[in-house]
Amino acid sequence: MKALRAGLTTLTIVLGAISAQAQECGGDFEQWRAGVAAEARADGVGNAGLGALAAAQFDTRILARDRGQSVFTQDFDQFAGRMVNAYRLRNGAANMKKYAGAFSQAQQQYGVPAPVITAFWALETDFGAVQGDFSTLNALATLAHDCRRPALFRPHLIALLKLIEQGVLPADVTGAWAGEIGQIQMLPGDYLAEGVDGDGDGRVDLRRSVPDVILTAGRLISKLGWRAGEPWMEEVRVPNDLPWAETGRTNRLPLSQWAAWGVTTRDGGALGAGPDAGLVLPMGHKGPAFLVYENYDVYLEWNQSFVYTLTAAHLARRLAGDPAYRLGNPEPGLSPEQMRALQEKLVALGHDVGGIDGVLGVNTREAIRKEQMRLGFPVDGWPTPRLLAAL
């Protein structure tokens, strides 16, 4: 109990500091809200939407969540091992069967296969079971007022007011802490622009109507760049002497080239025909390996976290019938504290790591690859104690 009180005291101090910072950066909340109201009114929002805005509250808990997304300090095996579980695989298969008609329509209209939509649906809300209990209005008002990403969230706040004005959503709608709504966790601007009436009842309900959810997800994924009929990811086996500097998501090469270097299918067979692909090594050259195609980039458009996108893509492959990936024997990684120490060294060497946060993001991986190349290490983007010591 004593430790709990100490923790709560620390949290109170942190939240107070966040609140003071946001008020200073975003200015007076009431004055800021008046500016949003004027913009919304000019954009066609009437009394219902403006009345909802008048009741919006600044919530320091939202900023605490925004600053502390520690889940992304996990490595791929930790995150995927937790998220790709028996419940999601079992219920995903059952839902693809139950709503086969809606999935078929989504594939016909947008070219997106059922396993791809289902994987996002599973990871976002466990098929609608966990949609979030934060006030969407307060979340978006807080994030739009905050100085970190106001240009991103202000349009979504006004879109929410439009949805309230139209009667699509109630003013007290709840969702995720970052303002996403419904079973696939869409921000209001996307809800407004991409929502599809999948069940033909004359309205788009992404909280309760599964056909609406499936068709809307298909449309959004298509708009993000999905290429119908093409693969997104394939697990492979790699040799010990691959030219590692040629690996990486963006370095797409013909499958014939990967085959010439000794890359095979997961079970050791020859690679088939297909578009160019990059080779991703989420835990280094001794860990799991995946060929990723242009469709994989759509996952990064959905969520920019490397571990989330690779997990979503793998879950989709599992739902399509693939077995679990082979972990291999990766070298030990770094703790979040060690990752921050590594990022500090990389910054000192002139690299842009996207912030010293202990997260192995895209920028940090690229900086690691450059230093591995300079030091003569296998260029796989995986941070190890050996690399940290060498720097």
From TrEMBL:
The keyword Signal applies. Residues 29-317 form the Transglycosylase SLT domain. The keyword Signal applies. GO terms for molecular function: peptidoglycan lytic transglycosylase activity. GO terms for biological process: peptidoglycan catabolic process. Residues 1-22 form the signal peptide. Keywords: Signal. Residues 337-391 form the Peptidoglycan binding-like domain. It comes from the Bacteria. Pfam families: PG_binding_1, SLT_2. InterPro entries: Lysozyme-like_dom_sf, MltB-like, MltB_2, Peptidoglycan-bd-like, PGBD-like_sf, PGBDSf, SLT_2. PANTHER family: LYTIC MUREIN TRANSGLYCOSYLASE, MEMBRANE-BOUND LYTIC MUREIN TRANSGLYCOSYLASE B. This is Lytic murein transglycosylase. It comes from Nitratireductor mangrovi.
